[in-house]
């Protein structure tokens, strides 16, 4: 038994001797502080980091984006043959719709707008379909245009929902006509966009120009009637209550305020008149974006006030 305790005591002494240096040499916060105060080595001076003015940096960034149109970009016209064909096609379809749905200041006007909005939103689906396919096969750098075209489609959808809320889709004949035209036009734009993007964008540029003129004329001729009508719930939700992210996203050609920042268009709705003012202005925003895409291949080709409609190039003979 004595031999057992002697062995245990020897083991304990050996174990303590082996680990004591490690335990006693471990620095504590107090020993670290004491070592730092008694060392002969010079203390390293900590240099203060420069303070970044975030507001200044933000304004500089915004100004850089806003002046994107100042870069040297070559304005492109549309081949005269393609231009004339597109204009003839869109003008013919528009004239047919005007013949079937003359503006009379009655509820039937909302059916006309329902048909126009059903067809007008189709090209954005076609653009996205082709770009999704290209992306699938490895093409990148399409994100900005895809997001913008989605926001444009969402905006046109809400125009359509407003017309439906006003009774524009009550007739099965109106619905059938609008959906048949939209189905055929979708596949036509898919083919054109896959072959020639500017030509496809030019089609929509012409449609949006007609849409702006249509709504502007409607406001001019029937404004007093519209001011007496309430705001549809879907319009209040989209323009006032919903998150404005998608609404801001499709407005790619904006004015600058006094500070050089992008201005924000925040709609005011007090009557149905205000709703149609905003729909009209939305169509102009689409038109500006499409003009830049046709002429510069860039959604922000030139600034707001410099945007002009596409012109045909004289044919070389």
What does this structure look like?
This protein is mainly alpha-helical and 317 residues long. The protein has twelve helices and two strands; from the N terminus they run H-H-H-E-H-H-H-H-H-H-H-H-H-E. The chain has helices at residues 2-24, 29-38, 54-66, 80-100, 108-120, 122-136, 143-165, 172-195, 197-227, 233-241, 245-250, 272-296, and strands spanning 78-79, 312-313. Strands 1-2 form a two-stranded parallel ribbon. Helix 5 packs antiparallel against helix 7, helix 5 (108-120) packs parallel to helix 8 (172-195) and helix 9 runs antiparallel to helix 12. The model is unreliable at 1-41, 43-47 and 54-71 (pLDDT under 50).
Topology:
Elements: H1 2-24, H2 29-38, H3 54-66, E1 78-79, H4 80-100, H5 108-120, H6 122-136, H7 143-165, H8 172-195, H9 197-227, H10 233-241, H11 245-250, H12 272-296, E2 312-313
Parallel strand pairs: 1-2
CATH topology: Ferritin
Instruction: Name the helix and strand elements from N-terminus to C-terminus, one letter apiece.
Output: HHHEHHHHHHHHHE
CATH domain class: Mainly Alpha
Radius of gyration: 33 Å
The residue-averaged pLDDT reads 78
Q: How do the strands line up in the largest sheet?
A: 1-2
Shape: globular
- Unreliable parts: 1-41, 43-47, 54-71
Q: Count the E strands.
A: 2
Report the sheet with the most strands, covering strand number, pairing sense and barrel closure: 2 strands, parallel
Q: Which structural class should the secondary elements be placed in? A: mainly alpha
What is the annotated CATH architecture?
Answer: Up-down Bundle
Classify the oligomer.
Answer: single chain
- Percentage of β-strand residues: under 5%
How many alpha or pi helices? 12
N-to-C terminal Cα separation, in Å?
121 Å
């Amino acid at each position: 038994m004595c031999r057992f305790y002697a062995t245990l005591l020897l083991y304990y002494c050996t174990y303590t001797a082996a680990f004591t240096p490690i335990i006693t040499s471990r620095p504590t916060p107090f020993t670290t502080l004491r070592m730092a105060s008694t060392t002969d080595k010079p203390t390293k001076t900590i240099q203060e980091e420069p303070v970044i003015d975030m507001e200044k940096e933000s304004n500089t960034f915004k100004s850089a984006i806003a002046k994107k149109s100042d870069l040297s970009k070559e304005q492109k016209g549309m081949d005269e043959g393609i231009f004339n064909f597109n204009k003839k096609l869109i003008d013919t379809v528009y004239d047919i719709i005007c013949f079937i749905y003359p503006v009379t200041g009655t509820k039937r006007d909302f059916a006309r707008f329902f048909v126009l909005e059903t067809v007008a939103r189709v090209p954005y689906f076609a653009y996205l379909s082709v770009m999704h396919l290209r992306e699938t096969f490895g093409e990148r750098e399409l994100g900005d245009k895809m997001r913008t075209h989605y926001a444009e489609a969402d905006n046109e959808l809400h125009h359509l929902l407003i017309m439906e809320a006003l009774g524009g889709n009550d007739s099965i004949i109106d619905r059938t006509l609008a959906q048949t035209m939209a189905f055929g036009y979708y596949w036509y734009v898919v083919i054109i966009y896959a072959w020639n993007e500017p030509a496809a964008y030019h089609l929509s540029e012409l449609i949006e120009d007609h849409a702006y003129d249509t709504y502007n004329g409607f406001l001019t001729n029937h404004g007093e009637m519209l001011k007496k009508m309430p705001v549809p719930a879907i319009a209040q939700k989209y323009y006032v209550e919903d998150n404005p992210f998608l609404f801001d996203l499709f407005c790619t050609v904006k004015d600058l305020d006094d500070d050089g920042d992008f201005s924000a268009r925040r709609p005011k709705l007090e009557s149905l008149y205000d709703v149609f003012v905003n729909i009209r202005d939305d169509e102009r925003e689409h038109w500006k974006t499409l003009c830049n895409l046709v002429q510069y291949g860039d959604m922000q080709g030139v600034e707001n006030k410099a945007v002009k409609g596409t012109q045909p190039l004289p044919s070389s003979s």
